[in-house]
Design brief:
The protein contains twelve helices and 14 strands. By secondary structure, it is α/β, with parallel strands linked by helices. It has two domains: about 120 residues, Aspartate Aminotransferase, domain 1; about 240 residues, Aspartate Aminotransferase, domain 2. The strands form four sheets. A seven-stranded mixed sheet has the order 2-10-9-8-5-3-4, with helices on both faces. Strands 11-14-13 form a three-stranded antiparallel sheet, covered by helices on one side. Strand 6 and strand 7 form a beta hairpin. The radius of gyration is 21 Å and the shape is globular.
Amino acid sequence: MKNLLDDIEEILLMGPGPSCVPPEVYRALSQKTLGHLDPYFLEIMEELKIMIRRIMNTANTLTLPISGTGSAGMEAAFVNLVEPGDPVLILLNGVFGVRMNEVAQRLGAQVEVLEFPWGTPVELQTAEKKIGRKSYQIIAMVQAETSTGVRNPVAEIGSLLKGSDSLYLVDTVTGLGGMEVRMDDWNIDVLYSGTQKCLSCPPGLAPVSFSQKAMQKLKSRKTKVPNWYLDLTLISEYWGQNRVYHHTAPVNMLYGLYQALLLILEEGPEKVFSRHREIHQALVQGLEELGLKMLVEEQFRLPMLNAVCVPEGVDELSVRKRLRSQFKIEIGGGLGPLAGKIWRIGLMGHTARKENVDRLMEALQEILKK
């Protein structure tokens, strides 16, 4: 029987995720599997929690990786805190705000959406007016909107909510590890991410953190958390001192995350963020030299996810197909109202290197030449 794994090609991953994985992380993933309650593995778990706190800049006790992708992190954030009838406000300007709305509605929340044009950020004054009109159980937004390449004003919204009874919930799936995240300083109560973006680990884990205020809400629920697998009152007993069995943890994936976080901390988070900004500027310069335009205004752009307008008369899908087949490079297309209108170019984690930008520019120049 033919083994399809023998024919996997090495593809330069420059789409919206997953990102390129460093050799050190691949080696970590291939380490010997231990039992999920093995004493040495428990040491690794404890160190993992410490490293996640450092990357998120939080002192929250309940900080751990959920066994699942970034979408599991989103689901865990809402399913543990929302009860039927709870008023929830979503500040929405892309696909992942839409998903927040969908998840909250399925849980029976009374959801209100404040939507902004895709490709533009959440507008602070408009959001402030909306927040001031009503008391919400949860106010949620995305820091780095992967579908548009927009950086939202997470810190500024957090300042508005300081001292509020509302829980502030933030998606940092794309941002964490590639730009500053200061959970405690920004008054964030619930934060979740994913391993496959700027952390440069394969998809499969979702780091989450809950503040004391969020934990009080969880503990005071009138109803059980409706999802057993993502119930943090149960998961925290495994990741806490009691080590109560909940599910068999993905041991080798946790090795991979351990190594990925270690690489960021060894390079230094500020140096990592600076590298992302520098490579982003190199990409923008290269794109402009090819006559291509960015979707997002300069001051609101993400360094790690770049939305590029498809020139008139160009079939965006055929360009992506040729990049993949001829040049072994993957980039992404647009989603929702931006489908067919933009390319999404990722410079996440290990992918954010000058040689990768140079290779992509050479390929695009060849494909787009008249």
